[in-house]
Hints:
Blueprint: E1 7-10, E2 13-17, H1 24-41, E3 45-49, H2 58-73, E4 77-81, H3 85-93, E5 102-104, H4 107-120
Helix pairs in contact: 1-2
Amino acid sequence: MSEQVPVLQIGQVLLVSIQTDLDDQAVMLLQDDLAAKVVESGAHGVIIDITAVEIVDSFVGRMLATIASISRMLDAQTVVVGMRPAVAITLVELGLSLGGVRTALTLDKGLRVLERARAEAGYDVPAGAGGEGIVPDAAAGL
């Protein structure tokens, strides 16, 4: 039996932290659960943390792209954070570009990417997860 991947809400962002390898059933549950939570919460962003993922295959790569597409259709941007170098290399070798999926090295940078995208789209940017606004740091290149 597949374990359900938790989807946490931080302000207007949903956080999915993938801590184990996902089988087909777990991925389908995650896609359904995440789509429902995007609609229910009105979230404008989805962050998928794959820091714990050591190995990917074409199925996982397609899953990330599919989740990003579903989120975009529901007016939420997706950022994948915590990608290991070996995972990035494998995805490139498999020919998976993950079109439409933005990436960031850390959760903090992922939140900044979402807020910048929201501001560029002309939306008011609400306060960050802890109630404070996250202001991009020009020196950090964000």
